[in-house]
Write a structure and sequence with these properties.
The chain has 346 residues and is of the alpha/beta class. The protein has 16 helices and seven strands.
């Protein structure tokens, strides 16, 4: 297993094809391939395929016999190396620690990993062509790591390209952003996303797509029975705020593996954010978006909460979501949010 400073591309991701809604975008990129920047920042909401784009761009840059339109041939040694996850001129730094036998998620991309990446960037290309460094998610670099990267972005090694992937680019230092060409990843229309999900056997594509705010890869991840069962349990409880079982709901965040508590809290915060947004829509006479399957409950609750306290609570939820990467006690956070939610209804 590679060490944190010498991450290699996952072979399955490296071999991934473009998603249907990315084809037109990819063609426009190939048309200006001769003006390719030394650093690109690929942005967009979660679940739309930003990483698939970055993997494809790495393949474009490292293909040794590209097609006439600039697309990778998928047959040369460079393409085969990427597909096998063994290309010596491609390095990926992500939010996983591969220093032990087990792959573990990490909260931050630390400076030592970026320094190791910079040392690799200074080396001569093994294949005699371009070199590509991919950082995903870029906003997970801590301050020291971002500063270390900035020094290389200011004076990039020749024929070396940096691909930064971020769903929260505003968390990156302005100095890093200014040295990258920003590329907004394409977002599929509803019909395309729904069809893509249906092709993968998702029976209720429209419902899970609404839960994922239109992001098809996010919807695919949510379309499992365990997640949907837990979501329904929480939303059913939120439907009766005056009898909300704060303690037992908080215990659900602690249930399961310890390392999954933060993810379970993140799901709870997302459910609360979407629920409150739909409550506000119901107050305004609109239809729920993310929680259409709880439309009757939301409509019944809408007249029981004042708009201003609801807005303040919603803002607190957004602030809490921004803090999820920091140390916290997931169960206590969930219980505090539930107590404040219950208080909205007197």
């Amino acid at each position: 297993m590679s060490d944190p400073g010498t991450d290699v591309v996952d072979g399955r991701r490296g071999a991934a094809a473009l998603l249907p809604w990315q084809v037109t975008w990819a063609a426009s990129v190939l048309a200006r391939r001769e003006r390719w920047p030394h650093a690109a920042l690929i942005t967009g909401p979660a679940g739309i395929g930003k990483r698939a784009l970055a993997d494809w761009l790495a393949r474009v840059l490292l293909c040794e016999t590209p097609r006439a339109d600039g697309a990778p041939c998928n047959a040369c040694p460079g393409c085969h190396y990427i597909g096998a996850g063994q290309h010596p001129d491609l390095r990926i730094v992500d939010a996983f620690d591969r220093s032990d036998d087990d792959v573990k998620a990490v909260e931050w991309i630390v400076v030592d990993r970026i320094r190791a990446l910079m040392q690799w960037a200074e080396l001569t290309s093994h294949r005699g062509g371009a070199k590509v460094a991919l950082i995903d998610p870029a906003e997970r670099m801590n301050a020291a790591a971002a500063n270390a990267l900035l020094k290389t972005l200011e004076e990039p090694p020749p024929n070396t390209h940096f691909l930064l992937v971020s769903q929260q680019p505003n968390r990156l230092p302005a100095t890093v952003i200014s040295r990258c060409q920003r590329m907004a990843a394409p977002i599929p229309d509803t019909a395309t996303a729904r069809q893509w999900l249906a092709d993968r056997g998702i029976a209720d594509a429209e419902r899970v797509l609404a839960q994922a705010h239109g992001a098809p890869l996010g919807a695919l991840a949510l379309a499992n029975a365990e997640y949907q069962h837990e979501r329904r349990a929480w939303l059913t409880a939120l439907s009766s705020p005056r009898t909300l079982p704060v303690t037992s709901l908080g215990a659900r965040v602690d249930a399961g593996p310890r390392e999954g508590r933060r993810d379970r809290l993140a799901a709870v915060v997302d459910w609360l954010v979407a629920w409150c947004a739909d409550l506000a829509r119901a107050q305004a006479g609109g239809a729920p978006r993310a929680n259409a399957d709880f439309g009757a409950q939301l409509t019944a609750l809408a007249s029981s909460v004042a708009a201003l306290p609801l807005f303040r609570y919603y803002r607190r939820l957004l602030q809490q979501r921004a803090l999820l990467a920091h140390p916290l006690q997931p169960r206590l956070v969930a219980e505090a949010l539930l107590i404040d939610y219950r208080a909205l209804f007197g």
